[in-house]
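In this section we walk through a basic example: taking a raw amino acid sequence and producing a predicted 3D structure, encoded as C-alpha cells. The instruction is simple. Fold the sequence below.
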Amino acid sequence: MSEIEIYKNKYKLLLPELPERSRRLVVAADAKSRGHGGVMFVHKTSGISRVTITKGIKELEDGVTLPEERSRQPGGGRKKITETDPTLENDLLDLVEDSSQGDPESLLKWTNKSLRTLSKELEKKNHTVSHTKAGHILKANDYHLQSNKKSKEGTDHPDRDEQFQYISAQAA
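The resulting C-alpha cell sequence is shown next.
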C-alpha cells in the first residue's frame, strides 16, 4: 500500500469522527511533520482546503486554545443574513404587509403568501434568501403562515368570529 493510500484511509476513518477544530489540527500536524510540500500532500489525501490546513498550522505554532465547549473563537462563524444584508428584513416585511390578515392592533399577524413566493419576490429585489430563512425572519417578527385551504373567507361557521376573538384574547 502506498503512502498516499495509507493517509487517505487514515483520514477517511478518523476525520468524520472529529469536530471541526480537531480535524484542522490533525491535518495541520501531519502537514507540518512532513515539511516542505506537506500542506499540498495532506490537501490531496484529505480533501481539506489548503487555507484550512495553513490556518491549523498557524494555530499550532501560536498555541491557540479555545474556551471549553467551543470549536471556534468567539465571533467566529457565519454572520446572520440580516447583518450582511441590512435591508432584507424591511423589504420582506413590506412584501407581506399588503397580504397580512387579522386585526392590525392584535398581537397575531399572519400572511397567506407562501415562503417560496416571498423568496422569489425578494430575489427580484436583489436579496439572496432561502424560503426557510424568510420563514425564520417572519417568525421573529411574530408572523404566522395561513394556509389557503379555503378560497374565501366568510361566515361558514356560526362561531367563526367568536373563535378568532377568543384566540386574539388568549394571545393578548
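Looking at the output, two observations stand out. The first strand starts at residue 100 and ends at 101. The beta strands are 100-101, 109-111, 143-145. In the next section we compare this with other chains.
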